[in-house]
TrEMBL record:
Top-level taxonomy: Eukaryota, Metazoa, Chordata, Craniata, Vertebrata
Taxonomic source organism: Cyanoderma ruficeps
SUPFAM superfamilies documented for this protein: S-adenosyl-L-methionine-dependent methyltransferases
Stored InterPro entries: FAM86_N (IPR029426), Methyltransf_16 (IPR019410), SAM-dependent_MTases_sf (IPR029063)
Family to which the UniProt record says this protein belongs: Belongs to the class I-like SAM-binding methyltransferase superfamily. EEF2KMT family.
Gene Ontology BP term (one): methylation
Gene Ontology cellular component terms for the protein in this record: protein-containing complex
Annotated keywords: Methyltransferase, S-adenosyl-L-methionine, Transferase
Pfam family for this entry, one: FAM86
Protein name stated in the entry: FAM86 N-terminal domain-containing protein
Gene Ontology terms for molecular function: methyltransferase activity
Ranges for domain FAM86 N-terminal: 9-95
């Protein structure tokens, strides 16, 4: 049983650091392994790669999540003839000492490059009057798709709509070498948390500037140079009020978005903004647009497609990634549309 253990511990690590649902962890495989070879060394390896992993120690998931995880590990240990593991009980004791549950937790997403994206996010789906303080499902497949297509982003200016707390954009900045990446959202608390997460991952956003200053700053970039450390901008962007001139000033070559098609009431504003992007291009080529969506309500998604057809924006579906090399469970109900504006 020595051979499969590293793979099993690694699968626990990948899901644990991303704070995936506990039921998605490979518990049956662990139990079978322990019954076949009752050795607490396997549990020690899992503990080292999860709760005691440096990323978890520095940016821990919620106390409740860690407590439930450790409790389940102890159940597996005690259901076999494996020797007791003091480190496991000590880790649980440390978690139980935490008197209050923090309203925030950290999630750590491991990239195929060996790098990671660390995010501070809310433990509640709705917090501060917004749902933008958690990572939404489509951000994960969109990030993986980008990592499979780095040439689309290399040495280009990328505008992300509805960036939320930053998973997709930070992953692209770390792996795809864009020249400039513009994170955007409209909720003040989301923008504040987004800025903190960007800095948490080693990037320094440009100072809060006006649209006209952003235009000038973008124009000073040195042509043809590939950027190892992209220029990062956090912009407050309201789809309903943004002007064609402001969008032109961003000089976006490629536009991406994840889970922005979830409410029929915002579809009109989104499509209106896409039309402004198209007409604001002047003598520049229109940006390439890619929107990833989790299909929660088919009627809402079909409405989005119908409204695109109505205004003459062509679209085609791109298969979402089916592999798991981004180290998470791929959501089967996520689609990516390429729009031709």
């Amino acid at each position: 049983m020595a051979e499969p253990r590293p793979g099993l511990a690694l699968r626990f690590q990948r899901r644990f650091l991303a704070a995936r649902p506990l039921r998605s962890l490979p518990w049956p495989e662990l139990e079978q392994s322990l019954r076949t070879a009752p050795d607490s060394a396997l549990l020690a390896d899992i503990l080292a790669k999860t709760v005691l992993h440096p990323l978890c120690v520095k940016y821990p998931p919620s106390a409740k999540y860690r407590r439930c995880f450790l409790t389940e590990l102890i159940k597996k240990l005690e259901s076999t003839a494996a020797e007791p593991l003091d480190e496991l009980y000590e880790a649980l004791a440390d978690v139980l000492k935490e008197e209050e549950e923090s309203p925030h937790c950290y999630k750590n997403y491991l990239l195929p490059t060996g790098d990671s994206v660390s995010l501070r996010e809310s433990t509640a789906l709705i917090s501060g009057g917004t749902t933008g303080l958690v990572t939404w499902e489509a951000a994960l497949p969109l990030a993986q798709w980008a990592l499979h297509n780095p040439g689309l982003f290399r040495d280009r200016t990328v505008l992300e709509l509805g960036s939320g707390i930053g998973l997709t954009g930070i992953a692209i900045c770390k792996t795809c070498q864009p020249r400039t990446f513009i994170f955007s959202d409209c909720h003040p608390r989301v923008l504040r948390q987004l800025g903190e997460n960007i800095q948490l991952n080693g990037f320094i956003p440009e100072p809060d500037v006006t649209w006209s200053t952003q235009t000038e700053s973008q124009g000073q970039e040195v042509g043809g140079e590939k950027c190892q450390n992209p220029k990062v901008i956090v912009a407050e962007l309201d789809w309903g009020s943004v002007t064609e001139k402001q969008l032109l000033g961003l000089r976006a070559d490629i536009v991406i978005a994840a889970d922005v098609v979830y409410d029929p009431e915002i579809i009109s504003a989104l499509i209106g903004m896409l039309q402004k992007l198209s007409t604001s291009r002047a003598d520049r080529k229109a940006p390439e647009v890619f929107i990833a969506s989790t299909i929660r309500n088919p009627d809402t998604y079909q409405l989005f497609q119908a409204e695109l057809d109505k205004v003459g924006i062509r679209w085609q579906m791109i298969p979402a990634p089916s592999s798991c090399d981004f180290l998470y469970d791929v959501q089967p109900d996520v689609t990516i549309l390429q729009l031709f504006i």
